[in-house]
């Protein structure tokens, strides 16, 4: 894990080895502007705890994430926006440190574009899936 942290760009930003446009910082959380934005005000909110995927981060290190996202929404004046958090290459994660995007969606051309490939199913399949997941909660 230490070697992954040593090479992690977000861990380097947290340590101050790489500069960022810091918007918020506490002992557990850092928010900064994305340097490859999809729209004006696109920012990242990250836990300082290094973990590749959401399930790797202890709950108490996630407690400030959404409140900080809300502060960014207010500070940017975004009225329409997406909150995005990807886990794994197949899900479009490029940096192996949990991060949440706050992406303003000012118009059709800027911001996040989404494909939503809805799948056909039926109530019996949904009920079986519900029971399977509910039993594991």
Automatic annotation (TrEMBL):
GO biological process, one term: nucleotide metabolic process
SUPFAM superfamilies in UniProt: HIT-like
Alphabetical list of CDD domains matching this protein: HINT_subgroup
Domain HIT: 9-112
One term of GO molecular function: hydrolase activity
Keywords associated with the record: Hydrolase, Magnesium, Nucleotide-binding
Annotated signal peptide: none
Protein name (Swiss-Prot/TrEMBL): Adenosine 5'-monophosphoramidase HNT1
Organism, scientific name: Podospora appendiculata
């Amino acid at each position: 894990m230490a070697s992954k942290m040593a090479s992690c760009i977000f861990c380097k930003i947290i340590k101050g080895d790489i500069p960022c446009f810091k918007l918020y910082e506490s002992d557990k959380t850092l928010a900064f502007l994305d340097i490859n934005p999809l729209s004006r005000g696109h920012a990242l909110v990250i836990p300082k705890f290094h973990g590749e995927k959401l399930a790797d981060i202890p709950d108490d290190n996630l407690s400030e994430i959404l409140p900080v996202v809300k502060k960014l929404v207010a500070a940017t004046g975004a009225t329409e926006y997406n909150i995005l958090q990807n886990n794994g290459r197949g899900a479009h994660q490029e940096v192996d440190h949990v991060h949440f995007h706050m992406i303003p969606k000012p118009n059709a051309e800027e911001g996040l574009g989404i494909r939503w490939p809805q799948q056909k199913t039926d109530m019996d399949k949904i009920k079986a899936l519900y029971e399977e997941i509910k039993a594991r909660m």
